[in-house]
From TrEMBL, chains A, B, C:
Residue span(s) of domain Glycoside hydrolase family 42 N-terminal: 13-393
Signal peptide residues on this chain, from the entry's feature table: none
Matching InterPro entries: Beta_galactosidase_C, Beta_galactosidase_Trimer, Class_I_gatase-like, GH, Glyco_hydro_42, Glyco_hydro_42_N, Glyco_hydro_b
Residues of the Beta-galactosidase C-terminal domain: 622-678
Superkingdom: Bacteria
Keyword tags: Glycosidase, Hydrolase, Metal-binding, Zinc
Protein name as annotated: Beta-galactosidase
Record field: catalytic activity: Hydrolysis of terminal non-reducing beta-D-galactose residues in beta-D-galactosides
CDD domains for the chain: A4_beta-galactosidase_middle_domain
Ranges for domain Beta-galactosidase trimerisation: 404-608
Amino acid sequence: MLLDGKKIELGTCYYPEHWDRSLWRDDLLRMQEHGIRVIRVAEFSWNLFEPQEGVFSDDFWDEFLDLAAECGMQVIFCTPTATPPAWLTEKYPEVLNCDLYGHPVYHGMRKHHNMTSPVYLEFVRRVVEHIASHYSAHPAIIGWQIDNEVNCETTSYHAPSDHAAFRAYLKEKFGTLENLNRAMGTVFWNQTYTSWEEIHLSRNTLAKSSNPHMMLEERRFISEAAIRYIGLQAEILRQYKRPEQFITTNGLFGVLDNHKLTAEYLDFMTYDSYPNFAFGLDTAKLAPRSLRDRETSFNLAKTRSVSPRFGIMEQQSGPGGWNTRMVQPAPKPGQLRLWTFQSIAHGADFVSYFRWRTCTFGTETYWHGLLNYDNRPNRRTEELKRTYADIEKIQAVAGAKFCAQAAILCDYDSEWDGMEDKWHGPLRGQSMDGWFKALQRAHIPFDFVNLSDAGTSAPLESYQVAVYPHPTIMTEARAAQLKSFVEAGGTLVLGCRSGYKDIYGRCPMMPMPGLLAPLTGCTVEDFTFLGPADEAEYMVWGNDCIPAPMFNDVLHPDTPDCTVLAVYKGNYYDGMPALTHRRVGQGEVYAFGAVFAEETAAAFIDRLGLRSPVDWTLPEAVELTIRRQADGAQYAFLLNYTDQPQEIRVPQSVRSLLTGETVCGAGTMEPYGVLVLEIPET
Amino acid sequence: MLLDGKKIELGTCYYPEHWDRSLWRDDLLRMQEHGIRVIRVAEFSWNLFEPQEGVFSDDFWDEFLDLAAECGMQVIFCTPTATPPAWLTEKYPEVLNCDLYGHPVYHGMRKHHNMTSPVYLEFVRRVVEHIASHYSAHPAIIGWQIDNEVNCETTSYHAPSDHAAFRAYLKEKFGTLENLNRAMGTVFWNQTYTSWEEIHLSRNTLAKSSNPHMMLEERRFISEAAIRYIGLQAEILRQYKRPEQFITTNGLFGVLDNHKLTAEYLDFMTYDSYPNFAFGLDTAKLAPRSLRDRETSFNLAKTRSVSPRFGIMEQQSGPGGWNTRMVQPAPKPGQLRLWTFQSIAHGADFVSYFRWRTCTFGTETYWHGLLNYDNRPNRRTEELKRTYADIEKIQAVAGAKFCAQAAILCDYDSEWDGMEDKWHGPLRGQSMDGWFKALQRAHIPFDFVNLSDAGTSAPLESYQVAVYPHPTIMTEARAAQLKSFVEAGGTLVLGCRSGYKDIYGRCPMMPMPGLLAPLTGCTVEDFTFLGPADEAEYMVWGNDCIPAPMFNDVLHPDTPDCTVLAVYKGNYYDGMPALTHRRVGQGEVYAFGAVFAEETAAAFIDRLGLRSPVDWTLPEAVELTIRRQADGAQYAFLLNYTDQPQEIRVPQSVRSLLTGETVCGAGTMEPYGVLVLEIPET
Amino acid sequence: MLLDGKKIELGTCYYPEHWDRSLWRDDLLRMQEHGIRVIRVAEFSWNLFEPQEGVFSDDFWDEFLDLAAECGMQVIFCTPTATPPAWLTEKYPEVLNCDLYGHPVYHGMRKHHNMTSPVYLEFVRRVVEHIASHYSAHPAIIGWQIDNEVNCETTSYHAPSDHAAFRAYLKEKFGTLENLNRAMGTVFWNQTYTSWEEIHLSRNTLAKSSNPHMMLEERRFISEAAIRYIGLQAEILRQYKRPEQFITTNGLFGVLDNHKLTAEYLDFMTYDSYPNFAFGLDTAKLAPRSLRDRETSFNLAKTRSVSPRFGIMEQQSGPGGWNTRMVQPAPKPGQLRLWTFQSIAHGADFVSYFRWRTCTFGTETYWHGLLNYDNRPNRRTEELKRTYADIEKIQAVAGAKFCAQAAILCDYDSEWDGMEDKWHGPLRGQSMDGWFKALQRAHIPFDFVNLSDAGTSAPLESYQVAVYPHPTIMTEARAAQLKSFVEAGGTLVLGCRSGYKDIYGRCPMMPMPGLLAPLTGCTVEDFTFLGPADEAEYMVWGNDCIPAPMFNDVLHPDTPDCTVLAVYKGNYYDGMPALTHRRVGQGEVYAFGAVFAEETAAAFIDRLGLRSPVDWTLPEAVELTIRRQADGAQYAFLLNYTDQPQEIRVPQSVRSLLTGETVCGAGTMEPYGVLVLEIPET
């Protein structure tokens, strides 16, 4: 069974409906030759199941699934709800999503439906029930994907049914208008609601500005609507599916609490990995960070936080792009293999390539698969063969857990509030980037840990250090969790703008960092954004002058045991506290008044004693990850993302799984090269 | 009484509805400690007055006003019409403003209403009448603010009622379609109207282009609608208010004839002064000029033109910004005091800080007041205390008039026409900037004087020099006023693109500068915009080569007494006249063929003999203004906008009001420092 | 008769409706003094013909035409359908065009109507029939212009009637939904249509993305709608007009098969030539190329392809620009004459200036004519007089044919598909630019030749070399035409991305370049866009390293006679084939794997032996064209686009038509200078 910890499997996304039936068998057999044992199908094929309203047909998929079974292929079968038929959206336009102005978004793309209209949900229910009941028994089917990339094309929903559902969501949550008005601060600018009918999702307003607390609730509502939409399908599938079949979907996309979704409805999450965005023609827009395809490791860590057991449903295998945008070059020779190992290095035991053969029509004519239009073998399919052979050599890694040295904390509340708030949102991205790069370059694997009132997505105690860059929204429950972590011996690092908002995004009348002040032992005395006319800001920490960019909290120690470690340098508050430290129980808390640049994060890593788990000499260009089996066996992955050879030094004898040889001392990694080394237990 | 010339008063904007009643008394008493004697309240509180349609309540404000009176506070009470309740806009959507496409702009921001719908005007009438009748007698209330920042959030109005009102406005103005068609040049592109029903405000068109003469009328209509909307409220207030109560509103915003508004309906205008925009994160967009916060003096001069007696209703006191935009750093230590004195230096005898305490919810969570969320004293409240003490030392200045050496002429017609016209609009901004900077750096205080067919906003004769950079739209009446000014001994300076349009924005079949040609004695022989491939353009004036940028009129002297002072250099019309001079009566006229760069304006200042009113040695970084009492006492303000000390030399004995000491000879101004010097009568 | 090959004529655009009748006679007589014998009138004057619905009037134009005849003026009379009256669009809003969202585009601009609504077409039919029947007999009228600049203001049509007409167009073209679905690849993303009612032109979609094959059909439909709209009028005119009257329209604009339009409905096409866009304030946006006004020669070559016999209906004669955009400086002294000769040099025997006198109102107040508002003679009218005198000296050129050495092939299908496709559209512009500049600088005149299944717009055999930069869409018929050309001795040069799409924009399952592979003898083995992280790419051709930018096809010779001429250098496919060569029949084919930079095109010119038709020494700054009479007389035009003198050397004795002198050896062309030299037959 997929992701059972016994085998790393390869798959591909296949669209039999795009090809002449005469190609099917050949395709499936050639897949097998390339090591592909799993295919995902049917996610955009509603019309094949239900060509007219209420008329169902199974000829197509029955025929295909039988052939798949015959060819020994395992199938992940999808619900086709991401692309409602034209007959449906034309007859029932209320199923369409709408933009902020209420303009419907029409047929011609995908995900143009909303997730709340009773009409759409009924159609979804009916088609999923039909599919679940008819196909579950098919032996080829090993699991189910619900819908496709929910919230990928948009996270903006404004259909009439969305407004109504939002109203119901708020009514359920707040009970009375009085509660709602208080929580949403509607007394400001006379926005008080006196009837539920006055309440809407964001609409067209002057300056595109809306009540920020309502905007936060709007995001919570969108996440909830998406979870319910997937949940509706998951519950139907669970009624009919065979026990050994899994349920998943593919992500990760915005304004969606993927942790809650996965916990409530999925067996595991899968990720769609397209590292080549880093090299696309509009890269500047899409990938602000500068580690290029290595940035995908950031997203894989996010996925691992959601679903420690996860697969890659779509792994890039060729040049990417729609006809109108996202134009990407061909992967360089070696990158397909490198990216496959990147996924595995981060914990994926299933890697399914997108797609088998490039579609010859439609919007994704340039989202190339393994094969080109001409169906001839090519250098990418040759590379896949080599990759497959290599993966067979590392099957011992299957099921091994990712080993992290540090945790970066995050929470949906602060993130979603920050989407609408220039005073903390942009800081978070910068600090995440600073920590990611610094940890990568120091070869320190890390995990993301999600925090909510219900607890953390992974046990915090297993980490020595936890960095929570800007926990803007803070609650009693979360402050207590952080306190427990520290008291039990953990080291917590906080950045500026912490704890100054409550769960609704309001600012309590407390000295900042609010509920975290009892933990840090200090409060914010003065603060400022750094404007365009300001000098660059630093803090003097010991003998070093370390960047303290973007925003500066001037800290004031309030308890005797809170000590000042560093002071500002550069602006009018020169010499005032920038960083404090306090021991609490067995642990310690650092409160930092600014944003973490990469250099800043590196300084913390150094001073906190965070070290790479291996004492090897690795260049900055090479990523290190480690996966550990329950039995203690450990596997180090080294990934060279550059087109240059890289020198490494491994001062111990370790076995290379790919070559079978023992590696010791200095060595050279080839361009885009990969090493998987079995290292002794620690 | 406020602005009675007897006392400079401090105030603040206070929102009792945002805070627990338990805080009110403490707030009011602490204000008093900080020198604050006046508060403005209620401008966004419609629901407190009328929680449901037709149901009025006065409990809230009665209670608060009684407490205010008890604490010795003087109150400016507002009409709450800037933010209609949700119950109103939901039930009567016709009261909403609409965008160009007709999409309503909805609840969630402020000023989302239109100013023409009979339904809205009736609701406004009713609530204002209730307020005026109920509260006028309250002893705490010293005056009234109508609405809030009219035309701030938008100057674009397209509700169905706006279209209808525009039609009525045109019918009243033009009487017949024939008149309208002729004035609007509708024969061009076959735009002739054959029925009033065919007439609309601008709507969605190809290339977002509309008849430019109709666009000019649209702006006149919008100004008129705003004046009528404020006038409706003013007339109700006048029926009920006590005689000693004043009526004002706060500005200045676009597409509004503030001169007419103030003359017809207000006792005086107040200005909202936010110098910190100059240091904001999106400063590049918001403040193209480079004198940063000193640019606010430009706006204060504009306000003074509208209302020689004026106050500051909102004076920035902390970091600024909404949650989504306009992010501004904290004012540097000293800037709060500096900006307060900047307002007073320009004539304001009332300065009211925005706001007492930063709101803890809503869109303006980051538009910080004097106090932060935590309500603790901070460095800004400490600075206010010092500022208050300083103001008490300069009370002798109260009521003194601003003294200007020169007038810059402007008119709404050319300005509004230029908003839609790339061939003169952008020139105006550049020339205004050039003159402002050159005059500032030469320490020559100036006034703006507004010109209309009815006359000028201040007597032109009191100025020796008047600069009218680009009076594109010219009428017989205005040409006559300019002629009188010159004949009586004034010096008039004109730039390019003068006088080539009539009152409807059409171009008369006359040699340019049209109606001004009899005054200048020259006409435009050739002309060109300077394109991207052209050389930089200069004029040779005596021995100097002076910028003549953007647009060049090649002038031709037509009368014997018109002499050529300078010729072009740089392009194909090298050697042709760029500047002419003519004596007319007791005065003289300069016609300049280009735009005024700062260096160009400086050359004119030098050659026209414009001099600073004091013979002091002042650095460019320091602004000088002078206020003079009716009894001849004069007070010079020196303002240092930089974070560096500035050296000055005052070669006469003058008394410093702030220190009480006598200043003479060289001295140093501290960073962000302020001096107020009593100087001998001139 | 105009364009009868006997005389080069001058004209102007005149708008008697804009001026007082008292000016008419003077205007017409002054035109005659300036050599103007032809005027175009009436294209925006529907209301003058039909002031109310169904009420016609001819007083205005009868009076004017009689006066024109009396003054000896020949008139091109227009149908006024580009600007429907306000009474029409207000009463029948279904005649308006709409934007993508369905918002109507309203009165206030021009071309705001759609071309499909039965109501509008009936109004058009009626007014054109009235005009044709009433005015055809008038002796002043020599020809007809239909509408004005069709598809100039927009090529986006989304009115309800457009959606319906598109549906009808597809039904007619595809017959069945099954055919349509297959051709449009609707199985992708489940876009299958199951009823004709589900079909629409593009509408609002997520990411503004629609089915690309439908988008191609949408462009074909828009072209067809425009042709039918003009055709409707042409057919009415043909019923009534005198035989000697011609029918034309003015262009060229986008998404319109001008070749088909001209062939089916017009006697010839006219072009609107505004070279001054090259010097406008927003030039960066409008003219990406760097030859400035010389780029207009590119458009004149396009016009010549559409209509070898053509005129200039609007030739720029002054500064240009609307009130809101396209601001252009005054033409430099000499440019009006230069641009007139540019048009003639490229084959135009009729040049009509836009416009006689600058309009004093409306959107085009700044689209200056020969005269300014003041109606005084000026330097431009003086220049026109000299130009007229010069043209009289070159009347021997009238009727001579343009002589080209090379053909650049193009087709509407690839161009329209490329508008929606980032993977080949942008390449075409770059390569066209590269070839245009390289040919210009080598002084090699060229023609554009349009290719379609029906054949080529000019006989290909008359060219030695044909360059078809990126024929993405390829059909059997076109491949056969290219093969014939080569077999008969032609040299064909192809760039990357050739032949990989079929007529619907789908990618056939063939090795690229698909249907062209049998001709090139090679196929594409690998390919990539060059991303931002890639090195600049070159090919090594002999001893030279030549740019091979943007996109790289790695070629693989499949036939023994296909030889590799050059290999790549710069990226991972270093050393692999970039350019192949093959002899086919009497000719040869070059397949090049990349885009043609200017330097690349220059290398091809050099190696292909393309040479200037004259062996003169000409600087890069000077353009050369040659026109040849049927009797063998040849005239060379030399045009200096710079403001600097240019040295030339003509090593043979030739007669200068403008001076009457014989030129031989070295000489100097004045800034913006023009030479017309009679050269010996070749």
